[in-house]
Amino acid sequence: MSSRTRARGVKTAAGVHTVHIPRQRGRRGAQPFVVVVPERPSLTREALGFLGRALWRSRRALAPTVLALFAVPLAAVLHALAWWSGLLLAPLAVAPVVWFGFLQVRRPGRGSVIAWRAGLTVLATAALAWLALAAGFGPLAGPLELLWLLTWIAAQSAWLIVRRTH
Q1: What pLDDT, on a 0 to 100 scale, did the predictor assign at position 36?
Q2: Are 123 and 151 in contact (CB under 8 A)?
Q3: For the chain, what is the radius of gyration of the CA atoms?
């Protein structure tokens, strides 16, 4: 770096290099450009970048996890604002059973088809019942934590199995 491009008397943070580009022709009175070049990203920044890229690549595979993680604060907000919202959500837990009965009448399934439908019905009923109970009593009340964890593991496992087979 020549003496014309080196910064004189400029204080910078540790690990940061500054380079002054001298004044260009025809720009009298204008200040020179200053380019700030960071040295290297820290190990923490590299690790967070790697984790973020990995999560972005597998975002579709982690859909049940995202829904489960959004359900906890949603239930907490519903419980804090109106505990009686659990009473309004309770009939919604019966909807998967109604869907299963309607589907079995319209398009009867046999073997693995009925097993997958029944499993999906049980899983959706458990998730909606958890949401109703968590909105009424709070998401961390009693065994609701364990029910949330088991429902999340089952939903994520079923999601990954279905995505591999189709």
Answers
A1: 72
A2: yes
A3: 29
